[in-house]
Each structure stands twice: as structure tokens, then as C-alpha cells.
Write a structure and sequence with these properties.
Elements (H helix, E strand, L loop, with lengths): L1 E5 L7 E6 L3 H17 L2 H16 L3 H9 L3 H21 L7 E2 L3 E8 L2 E5 L7 H12 L3 E5 L5 H11 L8 E3 L4 H10 L2 E5 L2 H14 L3 E4 L4 E5 L5 H13 L9 E7 L4 H9 L19 H9 L3 E2 L7 E2 L1 E3 L15 E7 L2 H8 L4 E2 L1 E5 L3 H10 L4 E4 L15 E2 L2 E2 L7 H5 L1 E8 L4
Parallel strand pairs: 5-6, 5-8, 6-7, 8-9, 10-11, 10-17, 11-15, 14-15, 17-18
Antiparallel strand pairs: 1-2, 3-4, 4-21, 9-20, 12-13, 16-19
Helix pairs in contact: 2-4, 3-4, 3-6, 4-5, 9-10
The structure holds nicotinamide-adenine-dinucleotide.
The site of nicotinamide-adenine-dinucleotide has 29 residues, from helix 7 and helix 8.
């Protein structure tokens, strides 16, 4: 079976067509390369990651991101810059302390790499997600084998081309393929990190747990933005329009539900969304490009959206106001969101928490008491105030609760714990 990736704005444009890769061979080579890498001086690992960061920053990968997944060019350039910044951030973390010392003889902890990290990734952040997993995996002495989404194979292979010249042979590999290759990687790796849909993530988690290897799954979301009457409503609406619709709503952190408390946001939001430029993602004025595929667009249309009559998988950004809409419960990865109301902030938080997901929630208000109570009670891995749900800072731990995340957070300083195992050492002298 071949892996085929086409451009969502011009479906006749074949970005890449390759045979699926050999997971077993990639993992075996990575395992050999990893032994020396783990023993290398931290400075060696730091230099390699800095060199890759330079190569990524100087690359034309943004054009490929635009072409392959239809990400608007301004956001695509931002993703390239972010990938370089993540590499530099973890390049420096190789110098961080690796444990603690304790009283009683010589007692201390160290951290050791797991071996081969199996990284299974989605298409919507085709550079940032593979990099935010691979960079810490490598920094802390692991090898990394990436199984990208078929729809982002071109970006992943281009990234591998920039990485491999700076690393020992076989230490990093990108293996094109679909579900069978993903499952095989989960069956062979020494540590597994997955980002994608909930259905696949739950299976990946169960398979890895069954083998007894550490696993982390970042999955879907149905993130809510709550607007209280004392908020700067204009600013909130501008934030929400962007968080719901930019990149055609195809971010796990996109606002999918709006809960208005004593304030009418539906009309202002509909107007703000109508002002967003829909069009060719290569045009810098575009905020909303196509969705990834014909199936993705059919799902948007099936939930109340409308297809646009032009080449490519475009759908008109749509704000739905309907208490019975399935959008209150189902994740639709597209430019569509639903507005509901609640009588007070407690009820609004209950509405935000009423789905199985718990990735990001945002509250817009100036009321400090409401903020403090919301921060304590909302059941969400990422909790924001007067900030859009979308937008992830690589130096902060990131991950969801309940059906949105399993196995702990990634990024920031959380990655060091995940990509290593702790050892406790006790030494007694003979004197
Ligand atoms: P997906 O679950 O279809 O695929 C993700 C990856 O898993 C792909 O590489 C795919 O080939 C692989 N895969 C499929 N079946 C597998 C199996 N049985 N075993 C192992 N691997 C398998 O997701 P997608 O459509 O690429 O991405 C969209 C989804 O990702 C959305 O639900 C979105 O919310 C979620 N997402 C979450 C985050 C987050 O951090 N929480 C970030 C981005 C995207």
C-alpha cells in the first residue's frame, strides 16, 4: 500500500506518494544508535539540536506546510519558528540537573533514557508536534522513530532530511504509513507518545500499558470559552472568532463551544467570523483555508456548516446557535462552533465540563472571585483567563484531562520526566 498525501486546496496536487516504511528495521537501527547517543557528553547532544534548529529556521518548510495541510502562511511561518525555538529550548535542557542528593551515606537519584521513543503524530501541526516530542526525547538520550499522519508525510520527511545530517545514523527515523505502522511502532518502542483522536489514543494507551512501557496520549477536545457580562466583550469576541476559525478550526485547542452568561455574543461573533478572510492559504491575508479532506468537509456540512463552491475542501466558517445541536457533544474538526447560554458562572463551568473532554477552557471576565473559583473547579488540563483556548506555549506543560489526555503532560519541564526513568542510588564507603 502506498501513502498518498494531496494538497487540500488543490486536491489534484500530489505532495508525496511513497511506499510505507519498515517500522521494525527503523526501530532496530535506532536501538543500536541510541546506546552511544545516551553515553555522549551533553554538549554533543546540545550542539546537534542547535544545528537542527538553525537548519529548520533557515528552511522553506513553511511553504510545504501551506501546500500539504492548507495552513495559512502566517501561521505556517509561526510553526517553523516555533519548531526551531523548541529545539533550542531542549538543547539547553541537556545541562539541567538530573536528580537530587539525600542525607545518609551517598544517596542520590539519576535519570536514564528509556531507549527508542515511538512517536505517533497527527497532521494538523506537521512540524511542531513531531518536534515537541522528538526534541526532548533526543535531548535526554533516546532515539526517536516518528510515524506521521499520512496527510502530513511530506512535512515529516522534509523534517527528517534536516535532522539526520546532524545526528548519528539511524538515531532518528520517519516511517511513512497508516494505522498498521502506527500500531507496530507502539508494539516495539520503549516509550510511546501519541497525539491524535480519542478513539485511536485510547487503543494506543491500552496497547502500550499492556506491554508495560510508559505512554502519553494527547487526544481530542471540545474546548469552551465562557464570557461573563463584565468582560471586555469586544476583545473576547475577537479572540473567540480567531480561536474557533483560524486554520479552519483544525486545532485540538480550538474553541468549539461558547457559553455566554448574561451577555449576547452570538451576533457579534457571527459578524467577527464573517470578517475573517477565507481563501488560498498561501495568501498572507487568509485566516481560514480549506479543511484537510473531503470527509472532513462532509462532517462539517453534516453538523450545519456549508461547503464553498470552489476547488479544494473549503467550508464557510459557521456559528451555530441551537441548544439541540450535536456540536455541544461531538468534536468536528472544522470551522464551526456553537453558542449556548448559562444563567451564572457556576452553571457555565458545569456546561463547559459536561462533555467527556477536558483539554482547554477559557473564561473572559474581570471578576477575580469568579476567576479563582473557576480555576479551582473547572475540569480541564489547560485553564485560561482572558486568553483564547487556542495557542500553546512550548515552555509550559501541556495536556488534557479525562478523554483529552492520558499519561501526563508533555512539553516544558514535564518532558524530562516522561522521556527518562528515575534510578535511586545508595553508596556506602568502606572507611
Ligand atoms: P488520528 O487519531 O486519526 O491519527 C493520529 C495518528 O495515529 C496518525 O499518525 C495515524 O496514522 C495513527 N494511527 C491511526 N490508527 C492507529 C492505530 N491503531 N495504532 C497506532 N497509530 C494509529 O488523528 P488525526 O486525524 O491525524 O488528527 C486529528 C485529531 O487529533 C483530532 O481529534 C484532534 O483533536 C487531535 N489532536 C490533539 C492534540 C492534542 O494535543 N490534544 C493536538 C493535535 C490534534
Amino acid at each position: 500500500m502506498t501513502v498518498l498525501s494531496t494538497s487540500p486546496q488543490r486536491p489534484s496536487d500530489v505532495v508525496v506518494e511513497v511506499g510505507e516504511g519498515n517500522v521494525g528495521a527503523a526501530v532496530d537501527r535506532a536501538r543500536v544508535a541510541q546506546r552511544e547517543w545516551a553515553a555522549a557528553d551533553p554538549g554533543v547532544r546540545a550542539s546537534a539540536l542547535h544545528a537542527i534548529a538553525d537548519a529548520v529556521a533557515a528552511s522553506d518548510l513553511a511553504d510545504l506546510v501551506v501546500r500539504e495541510v492548507g495552513k495559512p502562511v502566517v501561521e505556517a511561518r509561526g510553526e517553523v519558528a516555533r519548531a526551531a525555538a523548541i529545539l533550542r529550548y531542549y538543547a539547553q535542557q541537556v545541562y539541567d540537573p538530573v536528580g537530587e542528593t539525600y542525607p545518609g551515606g551517598l544517596s542520590f537519584t539519576v535519570r536514564r533514557p528509556h531507549g527508542v521513543a515511538g512517536l505517533v503524530t497527527p497532521w494538523n501541526f506537521p512540524l511542531a508536534i513531531p518536534v515537541w516530542k522528538a526534541a526532548p526525547a533526543l535531548a535526554f538520550g533516546n532515539a526517536a522513530v516518528v510515524k506521521p499522519s499520512p496527510e502530513a508525510t511530506g512535512c515529516a520527511l522534509a523534517l527528517a532530511d534536516l535532522m539526520t545530517p546532524h545526528l548519528p545514523d539511524g538515531l532518528v527515523a520517519v516511517v511513512p504509513g497508516g494505522a498498521p505502522e502506527g500500531a507496530e511502532l507502539v508494539a516495539r518502542a520503549d516509550v510511546v507518545s501519541f497525539t491524535g483522536s480519542g478513539a485511536v489514543g485510547r487503543r494506543v494507551a491500552a496497547d502500550a500499558v499492556g506491554r508495560g512501557v510508559p505512554v502519553q496520549c494527547e487526544m481530542g477536545g471540545l474546548s469552551a470559552s465562557i464570557v461573563l457580562p463584565d468582560a471586555d466583550v469586544e476583545a473576547a469576541v475577537a479572540d473567540i472568532a480567531w480561536a474557533a476559525m483560524a486554520f479552519a478550526g483544525q486545532k485540538c485547542t480550538a474553541t468549539k463551544r461558547v457559553v455566554a452568561v448574561g451577555v449576547d455574543v452570538a451576533e457579534a461573533l457571527t459578524d467577527a467570523v464573517a470578517r475573517l478572510v477565507v481563501g488560498d492559504p498561501a495568501d498572507p491575508s487568509t485566516a481560514v483555508g480549506p479543511v484537510i479532506s473531503a470527509e472532513a468537509r462532509a462532517r462539517v456540512v453534516g453538523h450545519g456548516g456549508r461547503a464553498l463552491d470552489r476547488d479544494g475542501w473549503y467550508a464557510r466558517p459557521t456559528v451555530v446557535v441551537d441548544p439541540e445541536s450535536r456540536l455541544h457533544r461531538e468534536e468536528v474538526f472544522g470551522p464551526i462552533c456553537v453558542v449556548g447560554v448559562a444563567p451564572d458562572v457556576e452553571s457555565a463551568v458545569r456546561v463547559a465540563d459536561s462533555t467527556e473532554y477536558g483539554l482547554v477552557t477559557a473564561l473572559y471576565t474581570r471578576d477575580l472571585d469568579a476567576v479563582l473559583s473557576y480555576v479551582d473547579t473547572v475540569r480541564s488540563g489547560q485553564v485560561k483567563v482572558n486568553l483564547p483556548t487556542a495557542g500553546v506555549d512550548f515552555h509550559l506543560p501541556f495536556g488534557g484531562e479525562r478523554a483529552s489526555g492520558y499519561g501526563g503532560k508533555e512539553q516544558g519541564k514535564a518532558a524530562a520526566a516522561f522521556y527518562t526513568r528515575g534510578r535511586t542510588v545508595q553508596i556506602k564507603g568502606n572507611a
